[in-house]
């Protein structure tokens, strides 16, 4: 990808690259919007960003292309993933619209805006291409640096202030000021004894011999799951797996298969379902 | 190939991002869509830079990235604190002017 | 000498201020302060009069510039006074009669605990009236005009605890307001036409204005005169104004204020001379009023209201004369002065009678009072002879000249106006004889009132009888003094101008006709009230009599035409307001409310909805930009 080629028109290679990677970028963008799980959206967005980085390189913005990969895809997207993990990686969003008319309005606006943008670009007279070659003659990074530290130095200083402010802001927002001393383990146990609830340790999660993961609630003697057995964080995220019906359903399936084999088909095959689950 | 195609691609990505902001309820995804829009702008700026033959467009794109980084830091902090207080990352849940 | 003019006004104004602000401390001496200041004003008037007499006829206009009242570029209203023969006449009449009536009031109001306030109002009236006649421009005149209106209102309603008095005061004020509006419009028209309203410039530029404009100004001035002087159609307030204390009726509603309209017309002679159409209207108004008042005076049993009808009728004479133009101006003023004497004397006599009769005003309950009140009888009788025009007394000279002038107008109009004036003279003789006979002759008809106390008629104290005697002297000799050698004519001619006209009848013929009318009127009254006893309860009477008792249905007319019409107009306006205005207002409110109710749903609190609005707005902006580019 020489500077000479980038100067006037684009090479066939670049055209090929544009059409292939452009398609990937659009698909990635669409997936970002329409994936149910936030973590998938984040990954698709990362893909799109990497494609964009390649395009930056193709347009002669070598510094930006590298920054895009290192800072954007590497740092910012990982920050996103971190927050996604914090909030709950397995939680899937419902894509069902709750605000009446919102989806149609959004699509209408988006479509109209897109049409306008396309019309504007088509309307604009973009005939002469100077090419980036001469500007990059002394090297892209050197050229950027000479601009940043001369003409744009004030804006550059301002972005520095902005970054510091943002860092402080993030700390202020996420830091929780404790208004009282954290209670020690001992105090907590003494409180439990005083109140008379859960004097022994909380029951452990998992259904032995079948599921022993931390997100599976232990079953009580009557077969119902006990919320107490799973961690509070998982409960709040709604990530508790309910396996109480699985054994019974398996048994049912087993019996049905046995009866089919014995050609006694009077009994209708029905899946066992907990009433409260059906109502959800 | 005409470099204007980069602009068309940027417009398309921008529109997809904007529509995503309007459609999705999950604050994190909404935020990602905003990033998508910013990146689309950056692509357009870089393409302009090439068309005009100077580096100013790239400078602006660079500043955009810096500002986007700051924005992400603050925005994610807001989302986290919102999640802490509401146990939800849905933007629709914050529809009242009180907790 | 000019500097004394302001003192004329200042004296009674000072009196009013002291008496009204001074409070109860002045109760004991307040009436004497008021009387003294009125008399002081009269003395200053006499000094000025002597000064004027010492000058030649063309040097007799004095002006005093006090201060610039409203100095605005192009709009100059100065507090400037003009003392010429016309205003001098009025000053002497106002201060002279006013002083006498102040003196009379000392006795008449002796038992009224608000006497100090009464004298304050009287002084206020004098000041306003003097300002009216001394003003050198129409705006200042208007100020005085409103001032006398205020004083009249306060004095008619002086006994405001009587509902009738309060209502009468309000009625007088409202009816006067119509006339005042006329004067205000006239002043505005004058300013629009001449760019000024000072007397001198207006009168000297009359020739520049079109006749239509002059007629408009003149008619508006006439409307003002009608309101103040109780001429048809604004006559209805004068009869009710008799609810005020009798000295007020004598001073304001007989001698001075009600003649302000005549003064206004004569003062504006230049304007009226340029508008013959308006002059004709003035004469018609005068003729109609003189008959109207006379007829009403015939039917009233209330002595003061009978005299009020007579006042209206006599002012009708003056207005008629003033409408005749240069033929009549001087005689209008002359009759005004003599009328001031005899009518004030008659009213004071009536007040004296009431004073002796426990404030009874119904003449049917008088009778034979000549034996009990000899001084009142003689002074009242002299006033009576003067007003009916008994040869040699003042009414004879002044009224006779007006009748002559009416004939002298010439043509059919002259005959009609002269005839009306003659008829009026006959009716005047009738109703005044009726008043005289019912009050002082015949048998006594008074009875104990509901409290069982029988009135004991007695002569009034000297403080009341002296003014009556002085006025009676004026009534007897005034006319002769003015007329012999045409003294009054020569005195006033430089201001008003005079022309003889060409009467189709000789002066002696008119005088003879007047005498015949007089005899007929007196004889008719004698036949009805002197020959046979007067019934205590009024007979039902003819249709005309009953109408006349109701003031010839003036109030019914006003009620039907103005009150009902006003009510209907108001109701239709209210209906319009309710349907149209309220409809628009409420409709706007309802549509805004409805729109808000729908717009409110946009504010659903969802950030995404707001984002859609923003995005849509941005799209519209882009669209607009592109569209402007494309265009």
TrEMBL record, chain B:
Gene3D superfamilies linked: 1.10.287.3510
Reaction equation(s) it catalyzes: a quinone + NADH + 5 H(+)(in) = a quinol + NAD(+) + 4 H(+)(out)
Top-rank EC class of the record's enzyme: translocase
Compartments in which it is found: Cell membrane; Membrane
Documented EC number(s): 7.1.1.-
An MF annotation (GO) of this entry: quinone binding
InterPro entries per the UniProt record, alphabetical: NADH_UbQ_OxRdtase_chain4L/K (IPR001133), NUOK/Mnh_C1-like (IPR039428)
Topology versus the membrane: Multi-pass membrane protein
Keywords: Cell membrane, Membrane, NAD, Oxidoreductase, Quinone, Translocase, Transmembrane, Transmembrane helix, Transport, Ubiquinone
Any one annotated GO CC term: plasma membrane
GO biological process: ATP synthesis coupled electron transport
Function of the molecule: NDH-1 shuttles electrons from NADH, via FMN and iron-sulfur (Fe-S) centers, to quinones in the respiratory chain. The immediate electron acceptor for the enzyme in this species is believed to be a menaquinone. Couples the redox reaction to proton translocation (for every two electrons transferred, four hydrogen ions are translocated across the cytoplasmic membrane), and thus conserves the redox energy in a proton gradient.
PANTHER family membership: NADH DEHYDROGENASE SUBUNIT 4L-RELATED, NADH-UBIQUINONE OXIDOREDUCTASE SUBUNIT ND4L
Self-association and partners: NDH-1 is composed of 14 different subunits. Subunits NuoA, H, J, K, L, M, N constitute the membrane sector of the complex.
Family: Belongs to the complex I subunit 4L family.
Full protein name: NADH-quinone oxidoreductase subunit K
Species of the source: Streptomyces curacoi
């Amino acid at each position: 990808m020489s500077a000479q080629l980038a100067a006037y028109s684009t090479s066939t290679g670049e055209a090929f690259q544009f059409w292939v990677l452009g398609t990937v970028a659009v698909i990635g963008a669409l997936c970002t919007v329409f994936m149910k799980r936030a973590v998938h959206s984040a990954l698709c967005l990362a893909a799109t960003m990497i494609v964009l980085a390649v395009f930056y390189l193709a347009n002669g913005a070598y510094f930006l292309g590298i920054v895009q990969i290192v800072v954007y895809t590497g740092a910012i997207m990982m920050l996103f993933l971190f927050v996604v993990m914090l909030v709950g990686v397995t939680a899937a969003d419902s894509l069902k619209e709750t605000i009446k008319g919102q989806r149609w309005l959004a699509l209408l606006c988006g479509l109209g805006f897109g049409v306008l943008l396309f019309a504007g670009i088509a309307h604009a007279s973009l005939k002469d291409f100077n090419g980036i070659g001469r500007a990059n003659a002394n090297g892209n990074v050197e050229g950027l640096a000479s601009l940043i530290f001369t003409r744009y130095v004030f804006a550059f200083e301002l972005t520095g202030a902005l970054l510091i402010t943002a860092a402080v802001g993030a700390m202020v927002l996420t830091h929780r000021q404790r208004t009282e001393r954290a209670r020690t383990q001992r105090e907590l146990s003494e409180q439990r004894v005083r109140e008379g609830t859960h004097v022994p340790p909380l029951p452990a999660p998992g259904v032995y011999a079948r599921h022993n993961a931390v997100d599976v609630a232990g079953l009580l003697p009557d077969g119902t799951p006990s919320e107490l057995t799973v961690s509070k964080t998982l409960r709040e995220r709604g990530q508790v797996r309910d396996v109480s019906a699985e054994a019974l359903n398996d048994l049912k399936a087993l019996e049905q298969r046995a009866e089919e084999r014995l050609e006694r088909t009077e009994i209708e095959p029905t899946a066992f379902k907990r009433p409260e689950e059906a109502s959800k | 190939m005409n470099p204007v195609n980069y602009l068309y691609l940027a417009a398309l990505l921008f529109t997809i991002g904007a529509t995503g902001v309007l459609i999705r309820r999950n604050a994190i995804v909404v935020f990602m869509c905003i990033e998508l829009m910013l990146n689309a702008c950056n692509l357009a700026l870089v393409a302009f830079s090439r068309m005009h033959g100077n580096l100013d467009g790239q400078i602006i794109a660079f500043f955009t990235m810096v500002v986007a980084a700051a924005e992400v830091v603050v925005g994610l902090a807001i989302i986290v604190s919102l999640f802490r207080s509401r146990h939800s990352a849905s933007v629709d849940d914050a529809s009242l002017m009180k907790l | 000498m000019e500097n004394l003019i302001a003192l004329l006004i200042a004296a009674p104004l000072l009196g009013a201020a002291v008496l009204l602000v001074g409070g109860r401390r002045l109760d004991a001496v307040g009436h004497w302060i008021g009387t003294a200041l009125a008399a002081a004003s009269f003395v200053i008037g006499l000094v000025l009069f002597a000064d004027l007499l010492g000058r030649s006829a063309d040097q007799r206009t004095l002006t005093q510039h006090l201060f610039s009242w409203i100095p605005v570029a192009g709009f100059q209203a100065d507090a400037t006074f003009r003392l010429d023969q016309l205003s001098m006449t009025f000053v002497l009449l106002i201060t002279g009669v006013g002083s006498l009536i102040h003196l009379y009031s000392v006795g008449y109001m002796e038992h009224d605990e608000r006497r100090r306030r009464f004298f304050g109002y009287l002084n206020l009236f004098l000041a306003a009236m003097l300002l009216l006649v001394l003003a050198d421009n129409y705006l200042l005149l208007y100020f005085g005009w409103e001032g006398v209106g205020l004083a009249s209102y306060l004095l008619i309603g002086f006994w405001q605890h009587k509902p009738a008095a309060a209502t009468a005061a309000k009625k007088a004020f409202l009816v006067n307001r119509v006339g005042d509006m006329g004067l205000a419009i006239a002043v505005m028209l004058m300013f629009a036409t001449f760019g000024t309203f000072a007397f001198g410039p207006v009168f000297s530029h009359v020739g520049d204005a079109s006749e239509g404009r002059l007629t408009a100004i003149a008619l508006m001035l006439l409307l003002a005169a009608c309101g103040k002087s109780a001429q048809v159609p604004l006559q209805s307030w004068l009869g009710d104004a008799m609810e005020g204390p009798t000295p007020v009726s004598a001073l304001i509603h007989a001698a001075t204020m009600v003649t302000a309209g005549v003064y206004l017309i004569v003062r504006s002679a230049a304007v009226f001379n340029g508008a013959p159409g308006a002059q004709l209207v003035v004469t018609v108004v005068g003729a109609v009023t003189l008959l109207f008042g006379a007829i009403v005076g015939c039917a009233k049993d209330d002595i003061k209201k009978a005299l009020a009808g007579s006042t209206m009728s006599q002012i009708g004479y003056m207005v008629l004369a003033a409408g005749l133009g240069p033929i009549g101006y001087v005689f209008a003023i002359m009759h005004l002065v003599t009328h001031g004497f005899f009518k004030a004397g008659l009213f004071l006599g009536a007040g004296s009678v009431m004073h002796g009769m426990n404030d009874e005003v119904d003449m049917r309950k008088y009778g034979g009072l000549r034996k009990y009140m000899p001084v009142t009888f003689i002074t009242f009788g002299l006033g009576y002879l003067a007003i009916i025009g008994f040869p040699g007394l003042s009414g004879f000279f002044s009224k006779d000249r007006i009748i002559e002038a009416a004939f002298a107008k010439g043509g059919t109009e002259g005959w009609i106006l002269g005839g009306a004036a003659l008829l009026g003279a006959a009716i005047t003789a009738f109703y005044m004889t009726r008043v005289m006979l019912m009050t002082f002759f015949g048998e006594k008809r008074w009875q104990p009132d509901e409290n069982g106390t029988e009135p004991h008629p007695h002569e009034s104290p000297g403080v009341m009888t002296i003014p009556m005697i002085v006025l009676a002297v004026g009534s007897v000799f005034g006319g002769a003094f003015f007329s012999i050698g045409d003294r009054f004519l020569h005195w006033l001619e430089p201001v008003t101008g005079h022309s003889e006209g060409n009467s189709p009848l000789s002066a002696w013929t008119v005088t003879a006709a007047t005498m015949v009318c007089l005899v007929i009127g007196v004889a008719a009254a004698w036949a009805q009230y002197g020959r046979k006893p007067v019934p205590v309860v009024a007979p039902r009477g003819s249709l005309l009599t009953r109408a006349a008792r109701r003031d010839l249905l003036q109030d019914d007319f006003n009620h039907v035409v103005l009150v009902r019409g006003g009510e209907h107009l108001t109701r239709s306006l209210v209906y319009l307001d309710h349907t149209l205005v309220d409809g628009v207002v409420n409709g706007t409110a309802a549509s805004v409310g409805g729109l808000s109710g729908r717009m409110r749903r946009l504010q659903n609190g969802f950030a995404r909805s707001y984002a859609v609005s923003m995005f849509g707005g941005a799209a519209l902006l882009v669209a607009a930009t592109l569209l402007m580019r494309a265009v």
